[in-house]
Design a protein that fits this description.
161 residues, alpha/beta, Maf protein, five-stranded mixed β-sheet, 5 strands, 42% helix, globular
Amino acid sequence: MTLRDIKRLSKEIILKANECNIVISTAESCTGGLIGSALTSISGSSAVYDRGYITYSNESKSDLLNIDIKLIEKYGAVSKEIAILMAEGALKLSKASLTVSVTGVAGPGGGTKINPVGRVYIGIAKENTPLEKKKINLIKKIFEKISSIYYKELLWVTCII
């Protein structure tokens, strides 16, 4: 995937979010803000992108997204449970109607048998209002494509508040 592909996918997300009247926020760990950066590089993104949380450390996940540090210690920063809590935290703390979270093992080191290098969990949360499932799935697929640039194994965790 090239920079041109990232730009194209980011534009697609911004256009679809605008079309669907969705406001997006991101909570990124292993991507360090790359997804938010890609989205905000698109003209018109300010109408549909509220904010991004870069929560690389466990402490930042706790401080910025109100995730109990004991839960991070229990499940590990790279887990479906933390991906859900990151997405939920971003939703509660932002003006977004849809949030996407990313947590994973970027590498080149740091991988384990449970979480090898390249594993990433992507969470999604939405406000409790009717958003058509097909619209959410489309946006989810686009985020998946962008994330696949960096990671080998994508594991989606969907939560609806």
